[in-house]
Each structure stands twice: as structure tokens, then as C-alpha cells.
């Protein structure tokens, strides 16, 4: 959409409240080029509030701008056309040889709006962008001009110092607010003696730090973007911001198994934190870390980028939360305030409807105005948690108390201290059972001890909540403790769902003998319908990845009494764990039997068969599984005859038996058996 210069931008929502009740003054007429701009809907108080906001500590909005042109009847190609609340603009092109009109455009956004405008450049070689044309025809002439002599360290240092001063002189001459270096030493298309030599690049940054950046004391910005993860670590204190090119982190399409975009941001930040840890604290790095999306494609710009996924892998509706907006909303998992968000060539959004639609939404979402501030609450981990509590064969509990610890995360920082009230909601157990086909038992309220959940000021997560549950005297069975959190009274707290934590408690005992070397009882004769299914992953993964046991006939052959060591044509299977942990094996029988244990014959033996059982489960429908080993992990004994014996302590009725396997090498089987207790 074209924007008439007389009404080039609507008042920034995020700044209306900042203007407050200040005295309203009539703004002066502004002339840019041949055009008079009289701002009738914004006065001096508005712009003062705008400048005050940008001078405050907050997460910045940043972008590379490549559209700058001579002022025209529309502001599509003018700095004046970008959102008022943009904090830092990095000129991707057209930063030199400014006309008087463009200088006025620059001065207006800097002095009236308080926007910082910096130059962006690759620093591949001495003189890049600053060598007179007649000397820039060849590398030899360019180096002669600056005094660079290969192998002469004094000459090289002198040349770099001259280059750094020339850059600063240019910044000062044009009145720019600093420099943004696109640092890409490992990108094939960007080559040069400076950026590919860490010693020379360190010299350059140290020289520039005399004029720009936090070490200079000038107030001019020094920004680094690109391969910030490869930056010589000692240089980190030279820069005001580290800008991550976190482009298309979702891959452009939603995937139920993809790492969430938020998790990707957390990972990128952790890389920088780790690299700079000897020179800066985690909070200092986080406060300077800016994430940016690629808006070079006009289509991506108009759509706000790509798909966005939360840390738990939920893909957001792209029409509502594209990646540009997701980055603005992202809060680092470490709890510290990020540097900000932005976009590469965000000016492609100038023709959006309205202009800069997603940049504006991002600015508002990242730093909401008073009266529009809202923070959504969700559990940091799952809203459902399950505990197995072991007792002995007589029913005596090994532990009489259980503590569940959890907390909440917020999409926006808290404003002041707050408290979430917690309550035990026993009435929710029946509804849960009806909806999920379960049979949990509600505990008496006298067994539950809980307090409110405290939230500190300016926090992105709550303090830990502790729910204490008295288990004394409880018999074996499945119990549930639903704990509901009530939002604080402050109106900005929101939640899409009821904040209920379902705490599941399975009181059981380990019914499996973990160190057996033989079986007792009698073998149950298999029917022709018995089979063994094996998986890399659990059986719901859909990935088998096993050899020689893919057909139904081969699966049934696990009960044919033919061993590989005796009959070379016997069927066997194995999996390689380094790729597919954990694995699982399911004994499938034609009906439910009263089982006293299982046996398993290895093909290879302990030299190759190296694995542990992490759980043994039973089921009647192959959907609902119950652990009979209390999720006890153990390494089974492989006897000399290559049998693994797993007797049960008491009979178990089951049609299906599943063993979860974690292995460091191979897992093999050529025969399986199911045993019953002797009558």
C-alpha cells in the first residue's frame, strides 16, 4: 500500500501511553527535499515520548534497510516511512554520497524520532568501501594506498589503524550512529584478508573500539552480525549487540518432529553465551542478543516470515504468529531479557497492507503499550506427570512422602510481584477417568500440602511450586492429585486453558527378578498365532528398522524352537542402538495368560549383545500398558547357553508383554518363551 507523505504513519500504539498527559505543543513544519511535511497528528510531546522510550532499557527492534532512495510522493523508499518505534536501522545499501534531501530524511528520523541509523559493511580487506576508485582497481593498488605489506606486521597494523579511522571519519561526516559489521569468514562468497584472519580482524575491532561501541565512550553503536558464533571470544566486549541471522528456523514447513523455533533461539543463544563466557556474564550476552528473520523475499515479508514453533513443538497458526512475530515474542529460557528482534531487508514490508504490518506487530508484542499488556501462562513442563512408588511384596512403601515440583513460564515479563493460588481439586479425577478410560483414585485432601506460587518482578517464569503428598498407609493402586492454579488478580495474566497439573501416582512393586540365571515353573506352549514384534523405538513409533524379522512369518518364527547356533536357517533379529535407542520387544499371544516369567535366547552372546532392560510392561489391548518392573533398569544375565531368564515374583495376567531395551551395541534374539508358575 502506498502511503501519502502527509499521513505517512499512524501513531505507534506502543507509545501512546508514554505520551501521557504532557502538554501538547504545535509541531513545526518539516521540509525534506522539495516536499513540505506538516505532521498534524503528532506533536512535540509525542516525539519526546518516542525519544524517551528509545532511550530506556528495552528489547530493541532492528532491521537491515535496502530501499533508501530520494524522497518522493510516497515514503516507500524513505527512512521516514519505517515504523516510528524502530530502534536501530542498519543501511544495507546507499549509505554514501547522500543528497541534501536524503540527509534531511536521515536527520529527521534520528533527531525527531530518536531512531539510530548505522552503516553496514563487510570488512573483508583493508579499504573495503572506503578506497578511492582510482586506487581500488586492483588488490595491489588498494594495499599500496593503505600501506599494507604482506609479512610486515608493523605496516599491517598501521594500515588497519588508518582504515578504522577512515571508517569512523565517514560515520562522523554523515552523522551516522555507528557501524554494523557483517562477519562471515566461512562463507565462500565473502572472502578477504581481514575477516578470514582472526588476528587481523581482532586488530580492526580493537582499533574501531577507540571510536565506536561500549569501550569508546562516544555513544556510537558497534554491532556484529553473521557468524557471531565464530567471533574471537575476546572481542565480545567491543560490541553493543550480537545479531543472529536465525533465518527460516522452522524449515518453512510445519513438522511434528521438528525442534521448536523457540528451542532453536535458545540453542543459538547458548552457543554465544558459551563462547563468550570468559569475558561476559550470561545476562550481559543475553541482553545484547538480537534474533532476526530473512525478509528478502517479498512474499516472506508480506507473510511475516515462516512457521513458528513453541519449545514443546506446537506449530503456531502462520496467519497469526509467523516467525517475525514469534521472534519478537520469544523470551530466552534462561530468564534474562533478550537484546531484541528484527529482519533482514525488512523494507520489503513497505508495500504490505498496512505498511510494515509484521514489524509493527512485532514491536507491539515485544514491548506492549500500557493497557494492552498481556502475558499468557503455561506449564514449563507437561501438565501431567506420573510417579512410580515402590513397595515390597507385603505392600510396605519404600517412601512415605512424595514431592512434585513444577513452575510456570510466561510469554511476557511480570510487572511487579504476584502469587498464583494453588488448590487440590479432587472432583476432577472422575472427569479425567471418564475422558481417558482410566481408573485413578482421588486422595483425601488431608494428605495434600501446597502453597501459592510466587512470581518475582520482571520475571519470565515463576518460582518452583511444591506439592507434598502423604502416602502413608496407601495400598497398591493408581492415584491422582489434580492441582489447579488460579491466575493472580492483575488483569494482564491470561491462559488459554485451565492451569491444572495432574499428578499421577502408581504404587506398585518390582515384580521382576532382575538377576535370575534360571527359570522355575513350566513353559506355556505357544499357539500358531503367537509372535514377537521388535522395534527401534516403542511400538507406536512406526519405525521398525530391524533385520530378518519384518514379516509376520518371521515374527512367528520366534516361537519355533529353532536356534541360530544349531540351525543356520533359523530366524533371528537384531538392531543397532547407537542410532535407534530405545528399542522395544513385544510378545504377542493369542489370549490373556497367567504368566510367571519370560525367556529370551540371544544369537550372539555377551560380546555383542550389550543392553539393559529399562521397563517391562503388560497389556490386554496393546494400547494401555502397565509397568510390572516399576520402571527399574537392570542388565539381564546372559547365561552360558545364551538364555536370558526373567521370572516374575508373582503371577501376572496379560496378553501382551513389552520389554523396553536400551543398548550400547547389538540386541539379538532367535527364540522366545513364556512361562507359567508350577501348580
Question: What do you see in this structure?
Answer:
This protein has three domains: 59-131 and 169-374, Glycosidases (TIM Barrel); 378-508, Sandwich (Immunoglobulin-like); 522-676, Galactose-binding domain-like (Jelly Rolls, Sandwich). Helices cover 20% and strands 28% of the residues. It has 14 helices and 31 strands. The chain has an eight-stranded parallel barrel with strand order 3-4-5-6-7-8-9-10, surrounded by four helices. Strand 1 (30-32) and strand 2 (35-37) form a beta hairpin. The longest helix has 22 residues, at 153-174. The chain is elongated.
What's this model, at a glance?
Helices cover 20% and strands 28% of the residues.
CATH class of the largest domain: Alpha Beta
Q: Low-confidence runs (pLDDT<50, min 5 residues)? A: 1-28, 251-259
The residue fraction in helices comes out at 10-25%
Mean pLDDT: 86
Task: Output the strand order for the largest sheet.
Answer: 3-4-5-6-7-8-9-10
Shape-level CATH architecture of the largest domain: Alpha-Beta Barrel
Write the layout of secondary structure elements.
Layout: H1 13-19, E1 30-32, E2 35-37, H2 44-55, E3 60-65, E4 88-91, H3 100-112, E5 116-121, H4 139-146, H5 153-174, E6 178-183, H6 198-208, E7 221-226, E8 241-245, H7 261-276, H8 282-287, E9 289-294, H9 298-303, H10 323-329, E10 340-344, H11 357-366, E11 375-379, E12 384-390, E13 401-406, E14 408-410, E15 418-424, H12 428-436, E16 441-442, E17 448-450, E18 453-455, E19 465-470, E20 477-486, E21 493-494, E22 499-508, E23 522-523, E24 531-536, H13 552-556, E25 573-576, H14 577-580, E26 583-601, E27 611-619, E28 626-627, E29 643-663, E30 666-669, E31 671-676
Parallel strand pairs: 3-4, 3-10, 4-5, 5-6, 6-7, 7-8, 8-9, 9-10, 11-21, 12-22, 16-20
Antiparallel strand pairs: 1-2, 11-14, 13-19, 15-18, 15-20, 17-19, 20-22, 23-31, 24-26, 25-30, 26-29, 26-31, 27-28, 27-29
Helix pairs in contact: 1-2, 5-6, 10-11
Amino acid at each position: 500500500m502506498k502511503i501519502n507523505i502527509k499521513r505517512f504513519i499512524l501513531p505507534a500504539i506502543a507509545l501512546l501511553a508514554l505520551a501521557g498527559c504532557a502538554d501538547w505543543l504545535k509541531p513545526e513544519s518539516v521540509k525534506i527535499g522539495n516536499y513540505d511535511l506538516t505532521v498534524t497528528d503528532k506533536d512535540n510531546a509525542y516525539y519526546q515520548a518516542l525519544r524517551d522510550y528509545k532511550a530506556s532499557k528495552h528489547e530493541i527492534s532492528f532491521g537491515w534497510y535496502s530501499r533508501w532512495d530520494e524522497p518522493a510522493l510516497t515514503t516507500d523508499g524513505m527512512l521516514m516511512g519505517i515504523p516510528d518505534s524502530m530502534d536501530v536501522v542498519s543501511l544495507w545499501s546507499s549509505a554514501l554520497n547522500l543528497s541534501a534531501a536524503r540527509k534531511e530524511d536521515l536527520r529527521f528520523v534520528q533527531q525527531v524520532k530518536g531512531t539510530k541509523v548505522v552503516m553496514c559493511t563487510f570488512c573483508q580487506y583493508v579499504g573495503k568501501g572506503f578506497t578511492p576508485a582510482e586506487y581500488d582497481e586492483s588488490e595491489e593498488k588498494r594495499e599500496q594506498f593503505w600501506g599494507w605489506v604482506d609479512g610486515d606486521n608493523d605496516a599491517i597494523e598501521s594500515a588497519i589503524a588508518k582504515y578504522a579511522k577512515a571508517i569512523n571519519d565517514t560515520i562522523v561526516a554523515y552523522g551516522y550512529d555507528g557501524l554494523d559489521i557483517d562477519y562471515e569468514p566461512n562463507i565462500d562468497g565473502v572472502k578477504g584478508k581481514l575477516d578470514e584472519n582472526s588476528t587481523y580482524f581482532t586488530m580492526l575491532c580493537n582499533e574501531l573500539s577507540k571510536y565506536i561501541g561500549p569501550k569508546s565512550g562516544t555513544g556510537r553503536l558497534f554491532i556484529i552480525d553473521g557468524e557471531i558464533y565464530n567471533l574471537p571470544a575476546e572481542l565480545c566486549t567491543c560490541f553493543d549487540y550480537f545479531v543472529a541471522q536465525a533465518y527460516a528456523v522452522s524449515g518453512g514447513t510445519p513438522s511434528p518432529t521438528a525442534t521448536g523455533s523457540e528451542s532453536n533461539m535458545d540453542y543459538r543463544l547458548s552457543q554465544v553465551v558459551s563462547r563468550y563466557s570468559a569475558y561476559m556474564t550470561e545476562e550481559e550476552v543475553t541482553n545484547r542478543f538480537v534474533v532476526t528473520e530473512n525478509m528478502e523475499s517479498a512474499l516472506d515479508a508480506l507473510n511475516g516470515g515462516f512457521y513458528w514453533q513453541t519449545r514443546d513443538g506446537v506449530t503456531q497458526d502462520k496467519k497469526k504468529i509467523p516467525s517475525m512475530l514469534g521472534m519478537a515474542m520469544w523470551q530466552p529460557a534462561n530468564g534474562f531479557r533478550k537484546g531484541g528482534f528484527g529482519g533482514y531487508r525488512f523494507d520489503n514490508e513497505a508495500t504490505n497492507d498496512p505498511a510494515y504490518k509484521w514489524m509493527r506487530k512485532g514491536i507491539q508484542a515485544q514491548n506492549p503499550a500500557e493497557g494492552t499488556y498481556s502475558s499468557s501462562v503455561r506449564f514449563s513442563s507437561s501438565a501431567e506427570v506420573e510417579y512410580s512408588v515402590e513397595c515390597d511384596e507385603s505392600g510396605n512403601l519404600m517412601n512415605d512422602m512424595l514431592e512434585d515440583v513444577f513452575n510456570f513460564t510466561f510469554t511476557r515479563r511480570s510487572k511487579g510481584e504476584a502469587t498464583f493460588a494453588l488448590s487440590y481439586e479432587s472432583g476432577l479425577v472422575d472427569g479425567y477417568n471418564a475422558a481417558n478410560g482410566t481408573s485413578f483414585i482421588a486422595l483425601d485432601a488431608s494428605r495434600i500440602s501446597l502453597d501459592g506460587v510466587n512470581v518475582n518482578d520482571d520475571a519470565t517464569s515463576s518460582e518452583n511450586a511444591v506439592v507434598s503428598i502423604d502416602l502413608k498407609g496407601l495400598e497398591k493402586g493408581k492415584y491422582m492429585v489434580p492441582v489447579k492454579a488460579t491466575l493472580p488478580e492483575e488483569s494482564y495474566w491470561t491462559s488459554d486453558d485451565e492451569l491444572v497439573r495432574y499428578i499421577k501416582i502408581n504404587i506398585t512393586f518390582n515384580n521382576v527378578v532382575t538377576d535370575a540365571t534360571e527359570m522355575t515353573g513350566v513353559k506355556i506352549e505357544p499357539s500358531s498365532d503367537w509372535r514377537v514384534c521388535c522395534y527401534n523405538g516403542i511400538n507406536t513409533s512406526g519405525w521398525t528398522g530391524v533385520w530378518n524379522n519384518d514379516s509376520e512369518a518371521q515374527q512367528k518364527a520366534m516361537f519355533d524352537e529353532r536356534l541360530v547356533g544349531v540351525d543356520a536357517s533359523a530366524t533371528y533379529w537384531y538392531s543397532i542402538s547407537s542410532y535407534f535407542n530405545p528399542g522395544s520387544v513385544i510378545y504377542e499371544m493369542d489370549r490373556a495368560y497367567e504368566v510367571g516369567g519370560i525367556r529370551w535366547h540371544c544369537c550372539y552372546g555377551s560380546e555383542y549383545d550389550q543392553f539393559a532392560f529399562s521397563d517391562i510392561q503388560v497389556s490386554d489391548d496393546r494400547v494401555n500398558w502397565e509397568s510390572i518392573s516399576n520402571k527399574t533398569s537392570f542388565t539381564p544375565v546372559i547365561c552360558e547357553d545364551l538364555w536370558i531368564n526373567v521370572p516374575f515374583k508373582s503371577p501376572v495376567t496379560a496378553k501382551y508383554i513389552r520389554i523396553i531395551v536400551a543398548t550400547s551395541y547389538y540386541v539379538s534374539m532367535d527364540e522366545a518363551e513364556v512361562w507359567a508358575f508350577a501348580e
